[in-house]
Design a protein that fits this description.
The chain contains six helices and ten strands; from the N terminus they run βαβαβαβαβββαβββα. By secondary structure, it is an alpha/beta fold. It has one domain: TIM Barrel, CATH 3.20.20. The strands form two sheets. Strands 1-2-3-4-5-6-7-8 form an eight-stranded parallel barrel, surrounded by six helices. Strands 9-10 form a two-stranded antiparallel sheet. α3 links the parallel β3 and β4.
């Protein structure tokens, strides 16, 4: 199975086109006002118009209410919702049942004991996204270029399909796959020239680094 990639935090038609052209399997839109990558549902709708049907559209949210979810899912025609806050398994299951889309739950990781948190979401989420744990005082739960020790995933019995995030870029993507066994990588800051500013050349090189895997 080839390694797939999600380019997250996209906010321009040019970078959407670069992600699609170079083979991204997923594109991500961030709906979180504190993020430099934040877009409104209406902005995401315009961007989603440039995404072909064989590329999945993922919305990233932090403890969202159902009104925001409904608006964003309908406007951007989202295929999946990625929950990046403190959502409980019960809340994740409720989002999945109410909105009828695939639901990913981000699990922040710093030490091996953090991985056990993923098991709480078996039967509630469709996919786990292992991401680097951010400092307690940070305004953002992800997208800060941090990474965790991928060796923590070696031999771990994953409760659900999963993806890897946190500090991934063109220089380390192949190592991340080799060490962790991931078949879906999620990058955001690793393909930027500044916070929230995606770089079309970095997007291309990141995706090209995975093409032969």
């Amino acid at each position: 199975m080839p390694v797939r990639a999600k380019i997250c935090g996209l906010s321009t038609a040019e970078t959407i086109a670069a992600a699609v052209r170079h083979g991204a399997s997923h594109v991500g839109f961030v709906f979180f006002p504190k993020s430099p990558r934040n877009v409104s549902p209406d902005q995401a709708a315009a961007l989603a118009a440039g995404v072909p049907g064989d590329v999945a559209r993922v919305g990233v949210f932090v403890d969202p209410d159902d009104a925001l979810l409904s608006h964003a899912i309908a406007a951007a025609r989202l295929d999946a919702v990625q929950l990046h806050g403190g959502e409980s398994p019960e809340r994740v299951a409720a989002v999945r049942a109410r909105h009828g889309v695939e639901v990913w739950k981000a699990v922040p990781v710093k030490v091996s004991a953090d991985l056990a948190y993923a098991r709480r979401y078996a039967g509630a989420a469709d996919r786990i996204l292992y991401d680097a744990k951010t400092p307690a005082a940070a305004d953002l739960p992800g997208g800060m270029g941090l990474r965790f020790d991928w060796r923590l995933l070696e031999g771990f019995d994953h409760p659900l399909p999963w993806a890897l995030s946190g500090g991934l870029d063109e220089r380390n993507a192949r190592d991340a796959v080799a060490i962790s066994g991931a078949r879906l990588l999620d990058t955001s800051s690793g393909v930027e020239s500044a916070p929230g500013v995606k770089d079309v050349d970095k997007i291309a090189r990141f995706l090209q680094s995975l093409a032969a895997l």
